[in-house]
Amino acid sequence: MLWNLWIGVVALTLSHVAIAAASVFRDPDTGLTFASEFTNYKINQGITYRIATPPDAVRGEPFDMIVQIVAPNDVGWTGIAFSGSMRENPLLIVWRNAAGNGVVASTRWARGHITPEPYAGASATVLRTGTKTNGTHYQATIMCSGCSFWRTASGGTRFLIPNESNRIAMAYSPTRPSNANSNTSAISVHDVHAYWPHQLNQGVNANFRQVVQTLQ
Ligand code: HEM
Ligand SMILES: *[C@@H]1O[C@H](CO)[C@@H](O)[C@H](O)[C@H]1NC(C)=O
Ligand SMILES: *[C@@H]1O[C@H](CO)[C@@H](O)[C@H](O)[C@H]1NC(C)=O
Ligand SMILES: *[C@@H]1O[C@H](CO)[C@@H](O)[C@H](O)[C@H]1NC(C)=O
Predict the structure, then answer these.
(1) Where do the Cellobiose dehydrogenase-like cytochrome domain residues begin and end (predicted)?
(2) Does the predicted TM-score (pTM) go above 0.90?
(3) pLDDT tens across 142-160, in order?
(4) Contact by Cβ (8 Å): 20, 194
(5) Which of 21, 81, 162, 173 could form a disulfide with 57 if both were Cys (CB 3.0 to 4.6 A apart)?
(6) Which residues 6+ apart lie within 8 Å of 108 measured at CB?
């Protein structure tokens, strides 16, 4: 098993100091291998962001991803900005549902540093496999289509490079969306954001399509 571990220190807004750690994660729930990143959003508390990709993703073309996010229950919402910054790229955000026994995922798009809108160019399907909650955490496993390729307002194409590390970003808010069962709920602004190079090449799965077919 190849473990590639690095520790980085990232300064966050609000003077928070984050410890980021990348690893390869073999997920017992889905059977997929993920490129995994653990990032602190407050002192001694972190969120894990994992991405699994298909073996035949082509540079410059869209590919599906399985995204897994593990967050402590005090995370109101958290999300990934796939371009590594907030504006003009698919944002994938997750939160606990109103009953606290499930997870809602939503795709958004920000025209600026303003409240992002629901984004129809990508779709996020919460899979039952690998999605769970308990007394301390919630975990979402999501099929994200349209999250790896997008067009900016000026028409340029942008994409994740499947066999390299790509800078992506996270954001965190302590406030759960007001209409927690709706994936178009209003959300409140984040307290913290952070960036890291996500090593997508470490989450490539030779049997991606076969495995994904079995996930519900
Ligand atoms: C109500 C919703 C939101 C509001 C009002 C908002 C507002 C802002 C503002 C004003 C900044 C600039 C802060 C600074 O420069 O210090 C910012 C930065 C940022 N936001 Fe948001 N945001 C929202 C949602 C989101 C979401 C859903 C994500 C990602 C999932 C996100 C990701 C980021 C990131 C990564 C930055 C760092 C600067 C950048 O890369 O553009 N934001 N946001
Ligand atoms: C909300 O969920 C519906 C049904 O799964 C989906 O078609 C739609 O794209 C989602 N909207 C957002 C903003 O994620
Ligand atoms: C709660 O769920 C998280 C995320 O799935 C997991 O890492 C943790 O071990 C679980 N805790 C218990 C006590 O089962
Ligand atoms: C990724 O693949 C391209 C060809 O599609 C190749 O030119 C490039 O060197 C590869 N990058 C790495 C880090 O392997």
Answers:
(1) 25-209
(2) yes
(3) 999 999 999 999 999 999 9
(4) yes
(5) 162
(6) 79, 90, 91, 93, 116, 117, 118, 119, 187
